[in-house]
Design goal:
10 helices, mainly alpha, 72% helix
Length: 266
């Protein structure tokens, strides 16, 4: 959560600060708990968007060739887009709450929590405003599902083939998720920036497409990957934890096939 917040803020900050400088400045001015602004929206987003994304991908890959990477890319794209539609409102509120302290007083929303954010957006901007930045959010969701889920499965296949490790070993799960996390970050970063700017824009701040483009490139080509360090610090460890935990849950509490149940009953 803290790295996610720092990533969002660095995309909006006008001054060229490093991740550490941004973190120390935020803690000094607003306290350590300010690193968790938007926590309620983040939790709701993870409980909906992330779980749906994983479930749809796991269901979909059962109907394609598991050794064909293009098939997995297709399943990941569809799963990510559908899950992204569900997660857009909470993601928008989360993004706005994370950058609120760095916005000018006239641009701040001051949402108390995610449900207060929903209520105020609908009342002040209309229901359709909950899907602000939806195209970028869905495209990012598709890419992140490709980068995480599809690349994780593909990495497992390659490591099993060339490293000769055990199929259900924690070592295999760790290095496969590490590879997926490292590939995913540069894949999604430019879209992440566009999504963030779209979601926090107002009638007087980043209101036009040209203004968004100019603002994104304010530090040159680095603007396409603004907040890259914070994204790496967030996404790589979280990807490893997510997949290692997922695999252990699958191994300990996974579904049994009907034939396995029949054998155990005998």
């Amino acid at each position: 959560m803290p790295f996610d917040l720092l990533e969002s803020q660095m995309m909006i900050l006008k001054k060229d600060r490093t991740t550490l400088q941004t973190a120390f400045r935020l803690i000094k001015r607003h306290g350590y708990l300010s690193l968790y602004d938007g926590y309620s929206a983040q939790m709701l987003r993870q409980l909906t968007y992330t779980t749906v994304r994983f479930h749809l991908y796991d269901i979909g890959k059962q109907y394609v060739d598991e050794f064909n990477f293009l098939h997995k890319i297709f399943v990941a794209t569809v799963s990510g887009m559908l899950a992204g539609i569900i997660g857009i409102p909470s993601e928008m509120i989360n993004t706005r709450m994370q950058v609120d302290r760095e916005m000018g007083p006239q641009h701040r929303r001051n949402y108390k929590h995610v449900f207060d954010g929903f209520r105020r957006v609908v009342r002040e901007e209309g229901f359709r405003a909950l899907y602000t930045g939806g195209l970028f959010a869905c495209s990012r969701a598709a890419l992140i599902t490709i980068g995480q889920n599809a690349m994780y499965d593909q990495s497992k296949i390659l490591f099993l083939r060339y490293l000769k490790v055990e199929e259900n070993s924690k070592w295999l799960h760790t290095i496969s998720s590490l590879a997926a996390g490292l590939i995913c970050v540069p894949l999604v970063q430019p879209l992440e920036i566009l999504k963030t700017m779209q979601m926090v824009s107002t009638s007087t701040f980043l209101s036009t497409r040209s203004e968004k483009t100019t603002y994104m490139m304010r530090f040159g080509l680095r603007g396409l990957f603004r907040g890259f360090t914070a994204t790496v610090c967030r996404m790589v460890p979280s990807t490893i934890i997510m997949f290692v935990a997922y695999e252990q849950l699958r191994l300990q509490f996974g579904y049994y096939k009907e034939t396995d149940l029949q054998k155990s009953n005998k």
